[in-house]
Amino acid sequence: MKSLHTITVFGRQLQVRSSASAEEVRQVEDFVNRKLDEVKSAVGDADTQTLMILALMNIAEAALSQQGCVGGFPDERARIMSIIRRIEQVTG
Asked: Theoretical Cys-Cys bridge with 7: which of 29, 51, 55, 87, CB 3.0 to 4.6 Å?
């Protein structure tokens, strides 16, 4: 059964439904906020949407690498890295 959880991501409070425990939701919230802080530190003054996209790209790359998708398909990894570079050029 899904429960309603209140989280804060990048200073914005949201209500989410999840079948995960409150602790698991909190861990995901903390992880996402850490990734956003890492991107903000690396990029500097960028709009929130750009920071979110870059953080999402970093998280997706890590998830795909763990699943063996990125490392197993060099073309996909190159395409993801190309997208990241283009986003960084726009924000840089």
From this structure: 29
5-9: long-range pairs with CB below 8 Å, 24+: 8/33, 9/33, 9/36
CA distance 35 to 27: 12
Dist CA 84 CA 53 (whole Å): 9
Residue-number span of the structural domain to which 48 is assigned: 3-91
SS3 45: coil
Q: Are 54 and 84 in contact (CB under 8 A)?
A: yes
Question: How much is the pTM?
Answer: 0.68
Ordered alpha helix ranges (H), the chain: 22-43, 48-67, 69-72, 74-91
Provide the domain count of the chain: 1
